[in-house]
Amino acid sequence: MSRQISAIGRWRKCCLRIRKRDMPRRALVNKRPYLVLSVAAALAFYYMRASALPEIYLVPIKGCAVGFLALYAWMRHSSCSARILTAALIAGAVGDMAIEFDLRAGAAAFFVFHALALVVFLRNRGEPLEGRDSLIFILLLLATPFIAYLLPYDDRVSLPAAIYALALGAMAAGAWASNFARLRVAAGAMLFIVSDLLKIAEMGPLSGSAVPQYLVWPIYYLGMFLITVGIVTTLRKRDPELRVVRGGQH
């Protein structure tokens, strides 16, 4: 009898260990399904471009990648900064789809994204910058539009590209000066710069090259992913208020 009781005790302990191991997986499914859907949409768009599927069907898939990031930001925190981030990501998703039809419309939507993201960073300013940090801030702010101005071969495009890139550089500089984790948020903003400069370079030195076609989307999406997750994670640490979607309840 004592052996049976001991075996039952060991079985219960084993079950408890298994439940504890499964908890992170359940948390991912219950609390972060939109991140999984976002990554799935981003990968689907990237690989399905090489298929025979008409591009018109790929546009909503492309928009869903950042669209699901917006849903993630909305559901995970209800602070004002999270709401502004959500609006910025919606603008980004619109830009992803609009740019497939008209470059200027896409750029306008992304200009809105940069402006709203900058508001988030200004609301969450870090300590005053000094030394190397100040230099990086200035480089992000000024070098980005300067490079964008030089890239296009058509002089008529240079100024609009620089104006857009000024907003892009301001967003990245704001991320660098904010109190969000630089390894995520500022790094994501810098990846955004790289992807956009590659896109602009299609009108210049990379005209006819396959490099932008293969690199722009994964670099851009990774940047957006890091910005979103970095901001939301920091906001949740400061204020553990949390929305969890489960059966329509939170």
UniProtKB/TrEMBL annotation:
Membrane topology field: Multi-pass membrane protein
Pfam families: YhhN
Top-level lineage group: Bacteria
One annotated GO molecular function: hydrolase activity
Residue ranges of the TM segments: 33-50, 56-75, 82-99, 105-122, 134-151, 157-176, 183-202, 214-235
Gene Ontology CC annotations of this record: membrane
Subcellular location: Membrane
InterPro entries referenced in this protein's UniProt entry, alphabetically: TMEM86B-like (IPR012506)
Protein name, UniProt field: Lysoplasmalogenase
UniProt organism field: Aurantiacibacter atlanticus
